[in-house]
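Whether sequence alone determines local backbone shape is best considered at the level of individual chains. Part of our work consisted of pairing the sequence of a single chain with a tokenised description of its backbone. This step matters because it turns folding into a mapping between discrete strings. For completeness, the protein is quoted in full, as a sequence line and a line of structure tokens:

_____
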Amino acid sequence: MKQLGFLGLNTGGFHRLAYTEWGEPNDNPTIVCVHGLSRNGRDFDFLAEALSAKERRVVCPDLAGRGRSDWLTDKQSYGFQVYCADLTALFARLGSNSFDWVGTSLGGLIGMVMAAQPNSPIRRLVINDAGPFIPRTAPQRILEYLGKAPHFKSVAEAEAYLRQTLAPYGKLTDAQWAHLARHGVHPKTKGGYIIAYDPGIAAPMRQARPVDIDMWETWDKIRCPVLLLRGATSDVLSAETAAEMCRRGPPTEYIEFPNVGHAPALMDPKQIEVVTSWLLAPGRPRRAQRS
């Protein structure tokens, strides 16, 4: 694993984007894994390790304002325009002709937007607990903790906080919770820790009027095959929306994980096997529904 970075540019100036890279470039499509709203690329370490063992190059960026990436000066810039521009710059830096995309929550929505573009280099798309319709109640729930700047005396204290806020991830091992905590905080210069994201990422959501998110037009433009994952108790991706995604738009295979909400952490060996098997399977996946 290598920790690397590059420069992005928006109206507020240049900002540095960090990413981790697993494996070496080869003739296979590079796999890009994009995290959720308040998380970072190290969430995918377990999945990336499994995929790189199969001779796949895996790249896991930290979106602007998260993880080791710079915070934006203009907080209203946190949105699809900047995220897509940054990830397009990452595509150019990586130099691959085609990519497979794994996106959790916000990362899945960004993947939808990127895959829907004409001449998109995205070959296969894994969407983890996100979809073209998200009820307004889900962002409102997330705003209850997003944008706050909790301080912690220790990483153990941060882990206890994450176990509570990320409880919908389902049952994780102690080692996995410790991993999320270790990479989910930054040390403060005067001691203690802060959460590893800019509280300003919530600014656009707080300013906007609460509405349902409707991206069906984007979904219908996607042409590459899709693996859709859902936590059975998710309040972000409903079973009804998942069923409609299987009925229309790109060829979609649907898998639901029991005893998980928003979102499956993709750390459990069974979840990792689902993703790796689908990405590594030859040919074009069929439209199917499984649970």
About this structure: The chain has ten helices and 14 strands.
